[in-house]
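Q: Sequence in, structure out?
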Amino acid sequence: MRPSTSSVSDSRAQGTRVVTIGIAAIIGILAVAAILLFMNLPDANAFDARVEQLFVENDDLTSNAEIKLLEILAQSGTAFSETLKSYRVVIFVLMLFATGLLVASLVLVVAIITLNRRMGEIERSGIQVSSLVISRDDNTVYLNNMEFKLTGAMVETLAVLAEARMDDDVLSGSELEGIISGRSPEDCEEAAGATRIKRLRDALGNQMVSELLIKTIAKRGYVLAIEKDVIRMV
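A: Exactly. Output:
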């Protein structure tokens, strides 16, 4: 009735491996991309070197206008060098942000996959109930220490299902209605028992939990999907 501990542990271990491999792959890919990007960026001093070469190759430029032009080129080279350095810093920061976002996305995707697997295990095995206490006098049900105030009819429906579960019986809608009403199942309608089950599920609140707690077995009826030894009626 319950998911095995080994399957849950295996799922967690597999999720951890996927996250570790994924993070390593993301960091590796971005590291290679960053190296290639920075290698192909022009050298920050390339412009200065070119201006210096112009000075050397054109030492016959002696007029004030020509010297002024060379000085402007030298200042432009310095400005270009500083701008390129700032671009390198911006690119590095963006790469860090991209790494963080990809890692977070990977962790989120793995968490969703793990959660979906866990929900699938719960759907296959039923809800894990450690304690089910039915108090007919107070019209109260305690499910895993959660208190549910129900009507007398709903408590009686749950009590009948609990007794059937302890006897390993599956009750059809007509059988359920017959036990509660004290009539013969042949004289009761299947829909009457189904209505009682629906009201009980609605009263328990969470649709998924109530559907897993009270399972419908096709062409047979209804049964509590819990262990017999956790049921207690007072």
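The beta strands are 132-135, 140-143, 146-149, 214-217, 221-224, 231-233.
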